[in-house]
Structure formats: C-alpha cells, structure tokens
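During the reporting period the student researcher (J.K.) took over the structure-prediction task from the postdoctoral fellow and processed the backlog of single-chain submissions. One of the processed entries is reproduced below for the supervisory committee.
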Amino acid sequence: MLSMSNDLRYFKLHPEVNDPLRATRGSACFDLYSFLPVESTVKVYRSVNFEETETVKREVRQERIPINPNERVLVPTGLIFDIPVGYSIRLYPRSSLALKQGLTLANNVGIIDSDYVEPVFAMVMNVSGYVKYINHNERICQGELFKNQTCIIEEITERPVQKTERTGGFGSTGEK
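J.K. obtained the following structure tokens:
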C-alpha cells in the first residue's frame, strides 16, 4: 500500500531490531541503531592504494565489529522504511561518535529516496587513526524525514548576472 501521508513507517527485519527513536521531545532527528547479532557479517571497504578499493566480509563476534583506520563499513540497522512519496530520509553522523570516537558517515549525509524499499545501512568510516568498535544495538546515526523540494533544471544561454555586492570566487565570502 502506497503511503500518501507524511508519517514515516518502518519494517523490522528481525523482532530484536531497535525502533528508531527521538532521544528527547526537542530532538530534530531520530536515532538509528546498529543491528549486529553474533555470526552475522558486514561489508568492509578499504583502500588498497590510490585507485583501488578492496571489499571483504567481516563476521560479527561478541556482538561488535572492529573498524580499522580509514575503513568504511556498511552497518546494518535491520530496518526497511516506507517513506512517503515526496519525501526522503537524510542520515547524519552522530556528533558524539564523530567527536569522541572518530566514527562518522563516509558520505557525510546519506539520502534514502522514497522508492528505496530495501534494508537501510549506515556507511560508517573510521577517521581516528585507531581501531574502533561498533557494538550491537548502538546508536549509530540519526535520521530526518525531509520534504523534497522539486524544481525544473533548465540550461540558459547567457551567464548569470551578479545579484548582490559579493566579489570574488570560491572561498571569497568573509575576506576583507
């Protein structure tokens, strides 16, 4: 059944998957949790050299996985979202994980379209320089239901004209 409201619905791939929850009434986003039961596997991406990336599977042991420096891991949430038409979900890093652990989202902001009805993963990257661990049922990222702004994308034949007093190019605002 196609959802036409702005309510966000979800399906759990396993009964033990944590519900997405807002930490407080004032929270702008809801938290998503890792789902890493023992003996499951995750996909790990690591750079071999400047041009090549190696993909391997890593088994979850003791309900946690190690992430080596500069590795990217697809961390399962165990959820499939039923996103309303005209909306998307934006996934953001958790500030405490980024600051204290050096774990962030490799794509900075993940975007899940309304026509994606597959399991959701957080693309976590270790930027700390040390081996870090993600535990089963740990708050791994935060999500926001986002109303899409559609527009017509149109080519023009004349260069745009200046609309403000700004001068200079890339990185020029705020310079005196």
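The committee noted the following: The first strand starts at residue 9 and ends at 12.
J.K. will present the remaining backlog at the next meeting.
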